[in-house]
Each structure stands twice: as C-alpha cells, then as structure tokens.
Amino acid sequence: WASRGAAMAHSNGGMMADLQMRMSKKIAQLTKVIYHLNNKNEDHDMDLAEMADQYESEIETVLRDTADKLNAFQEALDSRREELRVQEVVKRMSKQNEEAREAALAEFAAYKERTKRREAELVATAETEVAQLNVEVDGLKAELQRVLGNTSELSKNANAAEGQLRA
C-alpha cells in the first residue's frame, strides 16, 4: 500500500499540477474572453454613443426643417389671410361705392324730375303772363286806337275850327 500510496500521491501531485495547469489555461482563456468582451463592450458603448449623437443630430435637423416648414406655412397662411382681408375690404368698398353711385343716380333723377316740374311751372307761368300781357297789349292798342281816333277827330275839329276862325 505504501507504494500504491506513494504512487497515488505522486499521481495526485501530478494530477494536481495537471489540474493547476489546466485551470491556469482556463483562467488565461477566461481572461482573454473577459478582455475581449470588455473591448467589445467598450466598442459597443462607443458605437452607441456615436449612434446617439447621430440620432440627436438627425433629430435636430428634422426639428429645424419642421420649424422652417411650419414658419413657411405660417407665412403663407398669414399672407393668404391678408389677401382674403384685402379682398373683403375691396368687396365691401365696391359695394359701398355701388350703393353710393345708385343713391347719387337716384338723387340726380329726382333732381331732373324736380327741374322738369319747375321748368313746366315756369313755362306755364310765363305763358300765363304772356297771355295776360297780350291781353293788356291788345287793350292798350285798342285804347291807343281810340285815343288816336279821338286825336284825329280832335285834329279835324281843330283844323275845321281854325279854318272857321280864319274865315
């Protein structure tokens, strides 16, 4: 048993050394794997940080573009609102102008009608006055004829009386 025990001890020592060697190799492999995983993890972290920066940059670009588009749309909307407001003002002013024109035409037509009536009244009054003056003139002519006839008779009588007086 002693030789067997010594062989076992040697064999145990050999196994131990072999086990230690294998464990050292495994530890070295695990160290390499851990080192490789750490490097990969660091690379992955850097890739993630770079990707996050790219996404942030893209997000800022998209936000900027969106803000520019919104501003352009707002300007277009404001411009269109202003156009519509101007069109409404022009339409309202045109309507007011048309109403004022129609009122002026109606007032002018009424003025023409009043003028025609006034002219007709003046013509009628003038015709009446002319007729009265014609009557007066006719009366004056008759009176003048009568006076002339009387004057002519008086002149004859005076001539006859002068002729008698001379005789």
Chain-wise SSE layout:
Elements: H1 2-166
Report on this structure:
The chain is rod-shaped and about 220 Å long. 99% of the residues lie in helices and 0% in strands. It has one helix spanning 2-166. The longest helix is centred in the middle third of the chain and has 165 residues, at 2-166. With 167 residues, the chain is mostly helical. Residues 116-150 form a coiled coil.
> What count of helical segments does DSSP give?
1
Q: What is the N-to-C order of secondary-structure elements (H for helix, E for strand)?
A: H
Estimated helix fraction: over 70%
Mean pLDDT: 89
Largest sheet: none
Indicate the low-confidence ranges by residue numbers. Answer: none
- Report the structural category: mainly alpha
Radius of gyration: 69 Å
Total number of strands: 0
What is the strand content? under 5%
Apparent shape: rod-shaped
Keywords: Coiled coil
Protein name: Protein FAM184A/B N-terminal domain-containing protein
Coiled coil: 116-150
Pfam families: FAM184
Quick summary:
This protein is mainly alpha-helical and about 170 residues long.
